[in-house]
């Protein structure tokens, strides 16, 4: 019996690109018909946004505008730039400093971000693992994930060694963000 030589499958390694390369691709319209984001130098396809996802993130964004007022800018589904990791994710909600026309020159950097909220159903693993590491390594002190499967809020804080060390799951009551401890945020308004 002759045994065929079996060649191991070579590992598939994605080609990494820089933020500058990604920005040039965006400018010339390469990603025009695609929903993508850049994570750790790799272009990653984003899942289509379902109805509950779109409704809840929009409603929560309106609520946060109402209670935080002009102290912040609420950006919904727009990029943030994380130069250190070569990432440009598009979080559902980014609560950022009001820098006016400066955002015509660049997306918010980690130092401009108070906290981020992602609404997650089919991408829960990516949001809780990959994105949490990207955000923590960038020094974004607070990251919230709304788990649409269980209707719960996962709050990540306390960065050490590039990872969030505390993770709290909430379904009722209020929470205060680290940046605005004087503002009680109703969990029900984030979960809507």
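-> sequence recovered:
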């Amino acid at each position: 019996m002759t045994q065929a030589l079996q060649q191991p499958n070579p590992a598939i390694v994605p080609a990494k690109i820089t933020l500058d390369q990604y920005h040039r691709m965006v400018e010339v319209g390469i990603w025009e018909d695609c929903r993508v984001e850049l994570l750790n130098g790799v272009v990653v396809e984003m899942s289509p946004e379902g109805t509950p996802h779109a409704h809840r993130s929009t409603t929560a964004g309106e609520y946060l505008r109402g209670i935080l007022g002009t102290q912040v800018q609420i950006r919904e589904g727009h990029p943030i730039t994380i130069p250190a990791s070569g990432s440009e994710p598009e979080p559902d909600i980014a609560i950022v400093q009001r820098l006016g026309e400066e955002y015509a020159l660049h997306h918010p950097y980690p130092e401009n971000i108070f906290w981020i909220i992602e609404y997650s159903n089919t991408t829960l693993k990516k949001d809780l693992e990959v994105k949490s590491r990207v955000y923590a390594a960038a020094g974004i002190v607070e990251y919230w994930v709304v788990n649409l499967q269980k209707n719960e809020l996962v709050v990540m804080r306390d960065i050490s060694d590039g990872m969030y060390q505390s993770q709290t799951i909430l379904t009722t009551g209020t929470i205060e963000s680290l940046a605005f401890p004087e503002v009680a945020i109703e969990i029900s308004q984030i979960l809507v």
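The first helix runs from residue 19 to 27.
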